[in-house]
Structure formats: structure tokens, C-alpha cells
Amino acid sequence: MILSAGASIITVHGRRREQKGHNTGLADWSYIRYLRENLPADTVIFANGNILNHGDIEKCLEATGADGVMSAEGNLCDPTIFSGPPPSSSVGGSGMRGEERDGAEYWVGRDRKGGYRVDFVLRRYMDIIYKYVLEVPPPERKPLYVSSPTATFSANNANSDPATCDSIHTSPPVEDAEKKNENGEGDEPPKKKRKRNKEDAKPTSPNLVSIQGHLFQLLRPLISKHTHIRDVLSKCRAGRMSEFENIVSLVEAAVQSGIQEHDAFPERFETPLEERATKSEIEDEKTDAQPPSSKATVAQYKRPWWVCQPYVRPLPEEALQIGAMQPKKRDILVRKNEELGKVVERNGDGDVDAIAGTPDGLASGSDKENCTLVPSAVSG
């Protein structure tokens, strides 16, 4: 129907319509492969689903035979998902020293796992807004922090309470200035309405309205640790670029502190043994040899909080176990009927029992409350 209407390019998501939120689960690429093999060869197909990082793109193309890959949520969490690692000369991290610029974009740890730094990606995002949306030059910024052999991490910072360290940045300059104006403590007289500037105007570009939501996705791992940045970001208003520039400064300071701590105490950032997934566990997850679990996926894609990384949702089975998702009434009813059928078969002396008033022996609707078991006729 879609092709007969004139479409020449289609994007196929390997999930059903109800698979969203906690019920997202895994996409089934076999459906995309089926369409590729049965639709006309000149139909361009983009595959979607289960794209968590750059390495998944080739896997998807090989499994589906699609012409390209589309990413939605994965691209929000990691905007570099379609970019491979930069040349080795521009990669930096623990044990990887080089030129002054090395490591400012891409970070690699001792386990050889890496990714693009969130402060670098955030700068690129803001520069694009300035250049192509506001059509003004981006502000001048100092170079991003890069590890060096002489860099040290203060013992006071290492031993202090993280909450105490975070509180240093909880009152950003922009927010303080606004509070003073509102309370009459600034240059303006008390109770005088603050003059509106250009930033106060309601933004008309959807690119400005969506900045806050995009940053919540990009900075999810970082703001989970540095909650003061999350609180400041939640108060940013669309179109007020000075407030988002304040977020840029806070993120850069947090990333610098994190990298310095990692260089001084790398063991603090190593995954505990009980949370690590072996290669066999990852293979078992792929072949359904073990009950569904997101443990291996999290272990495979997890990076330090200053590195862009995907958000791995718990599988529906796990969401049900922790109470994040409630089973549907229909599923509860089917499960009860299955259990009831087993009991009837076990206690029926070989007879096949059925629930009166219901088709196929399944209770549904009001029948599940008032139903009677009627033994079938036994042949003489």
C-alpha cells in the first residue's frame, strides 16, 4: 500500500506499535530482512532499532540487508553515533599521551573502551545553534582540558564529599544575577519591573525550544552524578543562550574534575566484578540461552559519565520484576487460565475439563469471576 502510493524510500522499525517506554524491549531485525527479500529491489529501505553505538550500524546492515540505518533515541544520547573514532593522533586518555590537542574530543580508558567527550559534543551542538539558527559567531572559549603526565588531582578533592564539591557550582552567575534583580538587590530600584532584553523574547525557532530536552538526553550520565547541573538545566528557558552557556561552563568543569580523578585513581571507575559481563554471557543473551537480561548490554556499552553513551532500558521482564511496569489485565488473565488448566489436568484423572460458558476453555471478562468447572462426558 505504501509503495503503491508512490513511496520509494521506507524506514522500518523492528518493533510493534505497543513496544515503547518500559515495554520497548528488543527490536527484531528479521522482519526488516523479510521485507528486503520480498519487496522490489529498487525500494530503498532504512533499518531502525537496537542501534546503540557506531559498531551496531554495520551489524544491522549485515543482518537486515537494508540500504541504510536510521537512529532516533540513540542519536539523542550519543550524537556521534554515526561517527567512528577519530585518527589515533587525536585520541587521548589514560596511558595515551600525545600532542596538546590529543584527548580533547575522544577519550579512551585503560580497558581500551572510549567515546567522544560530552563537553566536546556540547560545544559542537551550541556552535551549530549559533551559526545556523541564530546566525551569529559562536563565543570564544578556552581549549578543553586535556590530560597530561604532570596533571595532579588534589587529595582534598579526592577525599571530600562529592555533595560538598558539587555545591561549589550550585549558584551559577546567571542565576544569581537574576535573583538579585528580582529581589531588588541589583542595580535597579526595588519592585521595578526588569527590562526585557532580546533573550526574553519568546523563541520562534523550534531549534531553540528543543535545546533543553536534547541536553537532558546528551548529559544523562553526567547529571545523574552532578545533580546540581541537572537542577540548573531544568531552570533554563528556551532562547536564553546565556543560561545554556552557563551549562557549558559547568559541564566543562565537571568533566575536567572527572578526568583528573580518573588519572589519579583509575580503580574508582572500574566496573565491579559482580557487574561485569563475560563474553559467554553476551553470547547467551544473543542466543536466548539465558533468561532475558540487560546486564550484558549495560556492561558492553557503559562508559565513564563524561563520555557519550547510549541509554539502555531495562527489558520488559526486568521492568515487571522491579515494579516499573504493571502487567496488562489480559496477560494476567491468560496466565491464570494457564495455571488453572494445569491444575485441572493434574486433578482430573485423565479427563479434559473446560470452563463452562467460555470458548476454548478460557475465562474472560465477567466469566473470570463466576465460572464453574464442568467435567466432560466420559465414554463408557
From TrEMBL:
Keywords assigned: NAD, NADP
Cited Pfam families: Dus (PF01207)
Gene3D superfamilies: Aldolase class I (3.20.20.70)
Region (Disordered) location: 156-207, 273-296, 358-380
Any one GO molecular function term: tRNA dihydrouridine synthase activity
Keyword NAD applies: yes
Domain DUS-like FMN-binding stretches: 2-83
Keyword NAD appears in the UniProt entry: yes
SUPFAM superfamilies: FMN-linked oxidoreductases
Compositionally biased spans, kind Polar residues: 156-170
PANTHER family the record matches: TRNA-DIHYDROURIDINE SYNTHASE, TRNA-DIHYDROURIDINE(16_17) SYNTHASE [NAD(P)(+)]-LIKE
Protein name (database record): tRNA-dihydrouridine synthase
Upper taxonomic lineage: Eukaryota, Fungi, Dikarya, Ascomycota, Pezizomycotina
Gene label: DUS1
